[in-house]
């Protein structure tokens, strides 16, 4: 676990006033809250994953996402026990109208990683830290209103739709989720998190379910044997197919056919 906060002096600037900045490589299961703040606080997730809870709503978050803590909201967040997150945070008072994007609980903004990482330079400054971070916050506000951010928000569903189409047409082949994420030009963890948010399943769970449903259809409606269905749905042998089929349907392929 590594945590560092940068000491700031409250300049009481009216439009954008930095209050807090820091970063942390969380220990497994590390949590904070329930707690509230009197200022706006943004956490950018660099790697790993965790859960953010606010107002009874819980979000599973990963790389490229920002969770937004609004003034006086009671929040709780906890790092995953196997892949704890690493995040950076910036807290500030905003005297401007709140941008529409910051009215949300969670943002998808992988383009902001470079900007948040550059904020760490404030730690090496002996003077002007507040002005430096104020400039970075202005850059962030500009990014939130720019085309790239709007495109990223809108393309999430496009990425998932493209992935689902690929999985549903290439399921009979050996499919690598890592290779699929590379073809989409997305980080594997980020892609998996995006896919789960849109479908409720991981890419691998979706693929497995689709293969087994297709295998059941091939046996039930097209007269294929379990061995033929296994080959037709991308399994290397009937034993692997049968094991996964029973786990999914609760019965073996042979028992399933007897009930049809």
UniProtKB/TrEMBL annotation:
InterPro entries per UniProt: AraC-bd, AraC_XylS_family_regulators, Homeodomain-like_sf, HTH-like, HTH_AraC, RmlC-like_jellyroll
Record's keyword annotation contains Transcription regulation: yes
Sequence ranges assigned to domain HTH araC/xylS-type in this UniProt record: 161-259
Species this protein is from: Neglectibacter timonensis
Pfam families for the chain: AraC_binding, HTH_18
Protein's name in the database: AraC family transcriptional regulator
Entries under Gene3D superfamilies matching the protein: Homeodomain-like, Jelly Rolls
Keywords annotated in UniProt: DNA-binding, Transcription, Transcription regulation
